[in-house]
């Protein structure tokens, strides 16, 4: 079998060629020691003193989630100077790559950030586009900021007590995720050590009711919730059984508590609770592991389950455990592990939504390294169980939604552009009939507008150039794990892809490639400009035979990248630099090192002399889209005479019409030149011939029908016409 | 039904082995007397068509299995007396697993009971600080009630040898008080009350009653040694909270077991020696003995009114409850209800209506209706005998009765080695003359010679009729032999169906007597202690050290796995050392031990608990004190060095 290493060795020269002088990223996909996330002595494996200046010694990992304390040595006395935390101990918020940026964070005893260090990231954009130093610069904005402050990406708004951070252009998702990582990690630890006080929520009051809901009723109204974790979610091999199948619910609510525990059981439990304490139950109806684990035996802490309410988390000690003797509700399932946990932390309120969190260990298949993975399920008492119903709750938007809201205007404009182009193309019959061989402006007005907007707005401004890397990501997502958040995090790309998938199957890939691809548009625009500037005599097409051979190259590139991606996504992403998109739009020709600039510039320069050289021979994205185009619904029209007549083929800039007159829809850019000809009675040879015959015979020129012929003067009987259509 | 011959087989004596056997053997030896007793009963018509013993197939089980998969928990706590091991034992049921033993009257080196200063203070010491008693014989244990069922606060247990009653807190399963009852011997029966006789607001246990079996001279100070006629037994009431003796009642005859009514008005004890004989043949001479009912409200009023005496050094008021002093029912403190000879066991039915006395030497059970007893006290009932609503034959040697809450009673037949299931209302109808009433429902052979039995929640209003445990006094061939001393055989019976079904045998070290089976949700245990509960707690490792006051030395230590706070401590030969150890580990189940070699000291400290020991440092040298209770991977390294200087 091809090992990853072998493949890397084989591909290394190619990669080296591409990356010759690319600034080598320090922390991109670096291999971290597994002890970093597992050893109690975090600081033996991480540069803790770099993020907590002044600290000379560090404690072992403590707390849940864990952190370490840093100490200064004052003449033999240890003085605590602050805390160091590893972001992945606390949160696994993914960045643009779908993987977390492993960050070491220092915070002093007052809750101010003292240092941030990226230990590992998987962001391709930082690898080959934006220098990693920009992320370092971004992170430095946190230094000295208080963890309890409201820190967001964007402009500061003092009137809202909001501290703004400068984003990194072109890496919005990365920095939004990074901000969440910083603030979540900081608050988690600050709360544990008492820097931040828990939020005090008003307590719920429960209406009195005689209802005795069954288990099914309780499940239906959400009073009992279900949390399932599959072995695959943890990187384990599954056999169809769940890894963890838990049901849980809130017991203080009298109707629910009595239904679940019985009258006596409820009274007995409530007699144990003090003011402000809350009880929940958990049962495991199936699963491969214990939800209690064994941590509570050694340290007294249940390390696999916790309750979260907003930013407050509530963990359970052995003393917070009470036996669940049984479930009284009719229809309750059999279970093999059970618990009642008592939430004693201040601030929990059953009136507001909370989550049960199962803390699992995800095992990386390749390295067997363990990273922690959280699975949660929300719980919120239904209106009927709360006096006055549910209080109003404003939930913070998830990252992707925040992006969509921020870019609403841009998204709107983009959708208008896409719909406009689609509408124009849908009306292509009308446009091409009104155009002629000599004057194609009726078509080109729309197409050129599309090009200009694609280049300027979509490409340079919105940086929404689709890329083969997205196709690879899709393949992987379909095969391994589908994360909507990942795809939603870039709204324009997300919308663009929906548009591309739909139009490829309706009309073929040409609508995207020929009308809307920013790089393709730029490339052909340059060709047109070249022609307009009098460079026509230098412009050329490759001979058809050579073209036919070279056009297969892009498929090879696509499959090559796909194959590499299964061994290493990172390497595939590096090799995807064969697309000059990043250099052209995302980073800028002048901002990259010379091999990239030379490559992209060269391709663009060549475009002046030959039409779309990259699209025709190299573009893996085009190849990926060309294949499904085989199954497009509406093709371009052809006449019987097209088999002999070469008129269209001569004018086809894409060299997509073969000697038999067939259009290769996979190569066609839908420029519509041949369709203009199709109805042009001065340009289409069969039409011109008929026009001349009628002129001679003194017959009138009837309108041209949908099949590109003059309507016959003596219409054939309806039946035979039908037959003809069928023939 | 057994024939006369098999009776004699059953009665073949094994000399001097067990108290009960002695009784039976004596009965056998008494031959003629017993025969008379039995034949007199046999004259009554036996119940019609009683099913053949042991022939019945098993009834449909309620589906619960006594076998628990790993991790599963029992549904009931079983609270067992330990007998002459002097302890209380806690079992899980239906599995029968022994979960813990609670040391009560006798020293226990595991926890340091009788070794630590705190436990010695509870157990009672002589002037030199040594324990007053080191043997005991626990028979009966009963738990506190609220609203007619267990409330999980306390259980009480008796010591028959030294006449003591102890209380065990059911939140920690530890003994917290022991009271020695004055002027009694052979303290046997014990039962908490279930409500206050006067104040209807008090629906929980506030008194515990204790019956004394052996009559003695009052006071027992060396005078009247041979005036057997003046020997007396006292019935005692102890305060459930303070554990002080509230009052005693002087009676005719003796006390055996005790029962209390659900309304708190009545307590009763069965008497097997109304004859007040000092020798067994005298004790068996009368055809009828009695079940004696005490009118609690009247007794307490008499005490209030100053109508009492005291005996010897005891300040406890003793009321006169003899027949002679209580002839007028309307003022009587006591009612003597005649029951057939030498009865054993009195049990209150869960419907709160009846007390049932088992016959022992009579093959009958006597059902006494409590309402009628109260009528007698009110002067509404002419003849006290009319309180007996049934006296029916069950088999040979009936001893104790349990209930299923569905109107059935289960009575052990010692001599027949059976449990008989019978219907109380049917028995009453039969006794009233309906000879078609079939009161015996089922019989089950048990192995062998059962004494006490009890059913799940039996003596509460919540008797649930699921499980029955039978304490068989003989195991004979039922377990791997371990020499001449055999374990006893606790048998588990499924009583959820019409027929009883024997489910399991469990060996128990001799010798539990009585027990109760309590639903697990009635008991709320604590997980760890609170530092503040102990006035001598060492709350911070920094408080550790050796503190000297003359030759009295206090060593303060804390334990935190895997270390004691002092690596060593030094005392001088001749010092009186008090060592205080607080376990500062907060994690549940993280208990440490502390042993001092050659000083005969070991005890444990549970999380956040403090204990102390006092000893004379009389042996110079180095003594490695170590943790005896497994605590940590470095458990073996958990030590401290006691240096005793010359």
Question: Can you put this structure into words, describing what you see?
Answer:
- The complex is a heterodimer of chains A (727) and B (646).
- With 727 residues, chain A is an alpha+beta fold.
- Chain A folds into 4 domains: 162 residues, no CATH class; 176 residues, no CATH class; 274 residues, no CATH class; 41 residues, no CATH class.
- Helices cover 42% and strands 15% of the residues of chain A.
- Chain A contains 30 helices and 16 strands.
- In chain A, strands 1-2-3-4-5 form a 5-stranded antiparallel beta sheet. In chain A, strands 8-9-10-14-13 form a 5-stranded antiparallel beta sheet. A 4-stranded antiparallel beta sheet of chain A has the order 12-11-15-16.
- In chain A, a hairpin with a 2-residue loop joins strand 11 and strand 12.
- Chain A is elongated and about 110 Å long.
- Chain A starts with a helix and ends with a helix.
- The C terminus of chain A is likely disordered.
- Chain B has 646 residues and is mainly β.
- Chain B folds into 3 domains: 304 residues, YVTN repeat-like/Quinoprotein amine dehydrogenase (Methylamine Dehydrogenase, Chain H); 202 residues, YVTN repeat-like/Quinoprotein amine dehydrogenase (Methylamine Dehydrogenase, Chain H, 7 Propeller), CATH 2.130.10.10; 115 residues, Immunoglobulin-like, CATH 2.60.40.420.
- In chain B, the strands form 10 sheets. In chain B, strands 8-9-10-11-15 form a 5-stranded mixed beta sheet, with helices on one face.
- The radius of gyration of chain B is 26 Å and the shape is globular.
- Chains A and B meet through helix 9 of A and loops of B.
